[in-house]
């Protein structure tokens, strides 16, 4: 599904060239549950942004479902992101003036889905994350855990194959964080490919495959055959 080959990403900071990714090669199969861990500044988020097609590598090849995506136009990239990839961020990135339901609905509006179908999909999405009674609440009326549930519902509203989560529990208390991880894992059990970026070993250690990145390089990748972390057939 995701195939990265010799990916490099460099940035120019003043007169200094910073290499955020240094020859990363990585394959992630459909339905996998992968965590990417490493210290601050190691390249975790840059790697996620490349996988998410939010950033283009300076060198290397990226195949998504066998399709080379590094040379696509901006419109083509936007279409691939919209249809194939969901995003969950540490700081939620919800629109403050919109209700929970309206935030979840936004990707459907951008995709041109008819109003009646949008309402049905949003109602189902809210039920799936346990927020039916918070549909008309705005972000400042919700707890951190509820905000992340809205963000997950929005990320999944287009039924993407891949869900990318960047420090999804980093802004939550321990109980809310546990509930969010369990919600993400339930999506993986349904067949969604789940990639979590985290600095927290207790979060990263739950994944079926654990990847560590340091100074822009993958230094080890550990696998274990935990059937509890595999998607249902």
List the helices and strands and how they pair.
Elements: E1 2-13, E2 16-28, E3 33-37, H1 44-51, E4 59-64, E5 67-68, H2 74-84, E6 85-89, H3 100-110, H4 115-128, H5 144-156, E7 162-166, H6 174-189, E8 193-198, H7 201-204, E9 209-214, E10 217-223
Parallel strand pairs: 3-8, 3-9, 6-7, 7-8
Antiparallel strand pairs: 1-2, 1-4, 4-5, 9-10
Helix pairs in contact: 3-4, 3-5, 4-5, 5-6
- Individual helix count: 7
Nearest-angstrom radius of gyration? Answer: 18 Å
Hey, roughly how much beta strand do the residues contain?
Answer: 25-35%
CATH superfamily, called what? P-loop containing nucleotide triphosphate hydrolases
**DSSP strand tally:** 10
What's the end-to-end separation, in Å? 17 Å
The major beta sheet can be summarized as:
6 strands, mixed
Protein name: ABC-type antimicrobial peptide transport system, ATPase component
Keywords: ATP-binding, Nucleotide-binding, Transport
GO cellular component, one term: transmembrane transporter complex
Pfam families: ABC_tran
Molecular structure report:
With 233 residues, the protein is of the alpha/beta class. It has a single domain (2-225), classed as 3-Layer(aba) Sandwich (Rossmann fold), CATH 3.40.50. The protein contains seven helices and ten strands. The protein has helices at residues 44-51, 74-84, 100-110, 115-128, 144-156, 174-189, 201-204, and strands at residues 2-13, 16-28, 33-37, 59-64, 67-68, 85-89, 162-166, 193-198, 209-214, 217-223. The strands form two sheets. It has a six-stranded mixed β-sheet with strand order 6-7-8-3-9-10, sandwiched between helices. A hairpin with a 2-residue loop joins strand 4 and strand 5 (67-68). Helix 3 runs parallel beside helix 5 (144-156) and helix 4 (115-128) packs across helix 5. It is globular and about 50 Å long. The two termini are 17 Å apart. GO terms for molecular function: ATP binding; ATP hydrolysis activity; transmembrane transporter activity. Residues 2-233 form the ABC transporter domain. One of its GO terms (cellular component) is transmembrane transporter complex.
